[in-house]
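Hey forum,

I'm writing up a methods section and want to include a predicted complex as supplementary material. The small molecule is pyridoxal-5'-phosphate. I've pasted the protein sequence and the SMILES. Can someone with a working setup run it? I'll credit the forum in the acknowledgements.
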Amino acid sequence: MSSTPLTAGTHRVPGKWPNANGRFGEFGGRFVPETLMGPVEQLERAYEQARCDANFQAELKRLLKDFAGRPTPLYHARRLSARLGGAQIFLKREDLLHTGAHKINNCLGQGLLAQRMGKARLIAETGAGQHGVATATVAALLGLECCVYMGEEDMTRQAPNVFRMRLLGAQVIPVSSGSKTLKDAINEGMRDWVTNVGNTHYLMGSVLGPHPYPMMVRDFHRVIGQEARGQVLELAGRLPDYLFACVGGGSNSIGLFYDFIPDREVKMVGVEAGGRSLRLGDHAARFAGGKPGVLHGTYTYVLQNEDGLIAATHSISAGLDYPAVGPEHALLHQSGRVEYTQASDAEALEAARELSRTEGIIPALESAHALAEVIRRASTLSREAIILVNLSGRGDKDLGIFQSAGIL
Ligand SMILES: *Cc1c(COP(=O)(O)O)cnc(C)c1O
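Reply by user p_vandermeer:
Happy to help. Structure tokens for the complex are below, copy them as they are.
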């Protein structure tokens, strides 16, 4: 049984990671050029002060509540549970947040931090545009200038989000280098940061990048697990048997998992993008085909070829389509505390259809990967078992993909 108090919002520290060097075991760290050392050290100091400052925390809490819509409900999906004939399934409704996904938690945190550091300008990378939209939203809210780097390829694929960002007052800068996608946008953003660090904060979108980003972004998403813990205790009277979440960079999953890590009886499953097949280039399942290496400033599991070149990736959901995973996940994988598995494009589409029809909730394709794994397992569990799934976002952004996939 759990050795920690069964209440929500206790400020216990579930893990000792990262250490002072930003390491999660052997993973993480700070692999950046000399020119970026100053900026990341300045950020680390500012964050250390902010996280202990009651005014900062109170302002963040206020915006999470009044602007973003926290707390999000924990919803017992009774029809889905009955239909699968096994465990009781509870959905953590991050899809109900402003801008449609969990990303706003982190953007509000880093936006307030930038303001506190006296930085008048935010820059961000974006793949599908979801993180760009959340960053542009927070920039507008706080009166900061905003500049979003986006691969040219992605700008064509995600035109509505480009328009949203511009409507919110952000400048969207096309990136035409490399594969013209997310990883190239991060490279360009980093270059901008080095040049303009005096007035600019780089707002990283997931638990990636050099220390302190993986720790800081995790901390801003911990609210998901803290709320869920209190809610499941209230609704079911005990801790859940399983947690499920999809893993792109790994922010919504670590946000849910983190406060349950000391509860050994709670099993955790992270679901990566299995794509078209498990052949290199056809998926984004780092723990199925990757090996340790450095990408964008951190040492972690990376999809790479035999020469160590970053591999091409594929997923039907842009939010999961990235060749590296957050370093804390690499440690949780190594220690066995979290089990990592994959769902394919086809399984995610089918899971999205199932949830839409059974519960009246159209999930984001990313979240549908976690649901696909739940659909696979629920019937093997008893009717008393409790499963908690992070519904990281809503499916509005994916309607075009649903339509062209012909899932009706
Ligand atoms: C961006 C995104 C993800 C993937 O990012 P993580 O950092 O792994 O959480 C998952 N779900 C949704 C809805 C997203 O927008």
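Some notes you might quote in the supplement: DSSP finds 15 helices and 14 strands in the chain. Residues 101, 103, 130, 206, 246-253, 319-320, 364, 366-367, 392-393 surround pyridoxal-5'-phosphate (CB under 6 Å).
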